[in-house]
Design a protein that fits this description.
- This protein is mainly alpha-helical.
- The chain has 6 helices and no strands.
- Helix 1 runs antiparallel to helix 4, helix 4 packs antiparallel against helix 5 and helix 5 runs antiparallel to helix 6.
- The longest helix has 50 residues.
- The radius of gyration is 27 Å and the shape is elongated.
Length: 182
C-alpha cells in the first residue's frame, strides 16, 4: 500500500508530465496567433494603401456619404474601416487556429460562429451605405421637383422621402443582422 508521500509524488509527477505534454501545444498556439497578428497588421496596411490609391474616401465625400454620417455624429473613414475589418477577420481566424491547436472545441466553435456572422455585418453596412446614398439622391430630386412646381413644402416632402428611405434601410440592415426580423 502506497504511503501519502508516494501518492503526492505520483500526483505531482503526473501533473509535470501532462504539463510537458501540453507545453508544445501552447507554444504552437502562441506562434500561430502571433503569426496571425503579424499577417493582420500587414494586410491592414495593404488595404489602407489600396483604399487610399483608389481614393475611396474622396469618392465617399463626393457622394455625400461622409456628410450624411457626420450629421449623425459618425466620422466615416472608409479606408480605415476596411482595414479594421480585414485586420480583425485575420485575428479571429488565427485565434480559431490557436484554440483548435489547444483542443478548446467550445471556444473554436464560438469563434467560427463569429466569423460566419461577419458577412452579415458587412452586408448590413453596405445596405446602410446604399440607403444613405439613395436617401440623399431622392432628397435632392424631390426638393428640386417640388421647388420647380413652386410649392412651399419642398423641404418637408424631401425630408419625408429621405427619412423614409433611411428608416427602411436601417430596418433592412437589422433584418440582415437577424435582429427584429419581423
Amino acid at each position: 500500500m502506497p504511503t501519502a508521500i508516494e501518492i503526492v509524488q505520483t500526483a505531482f509527477a503526473d501533473l509535470w508530465a501532462s504539463m510537458l505534454q501540453f507545453l508544445p501545444l501552447i507554444l504552437g498556439a502562441i506562434v500561430v496567433f502571433l503569426l496571425g497578428l503579424i499577417v493582420a497588421i500587414i494586410l491592414k496596411g495593404i488595404i489602407l494603401r489600396i483604399s487610399n490609391f483608389l481614393h475611396l474616401d474622396d469618392l465617399a465625400t463626393k457622394l455625400d456619404v461622409k456628410a450624411s454620417f457626420e450629421k449623425m455624429g459618425i466620422k466615416l473613414n472608409i479606408a480605415g474601416m476596411l482595414g479594421w475589418i480585414v485586420k480583425w477577420f485575420v485575428i479571429i481566424v488565427s485565434l480559431i487556429a490557436a484554440t483548435d491547436i489547444l483542443g478548446w472545441s467550445q471556444l473554436t466553435a464560438f469563434l467560427n460562429e463569429v466569423v460566419l456572422y461577419l458577412p452579415n455585418v458587412i452586408i448590413s453596412v453596405i445596405i446602410l451605405l446604399v440607403g444613405v446614398l439613395l436617401a440623399n439622391f431622392v432628397y435632392r430630386v424631390v426638393d428640386t421637383a417640388v421647388k420647380a412646381a413652386r410649392l412651399k413644402s419642398a423641404d418637408f416632402l424631401a425630408g419625408i422621402s429621405k427619412w423614409a428611405i433611411l428608416i427602411f434601410s436601417f430596418m433592412a440592415a437589422l433584418a440582415q443582422l437577424g435582429i427584429a426580423q419581423n
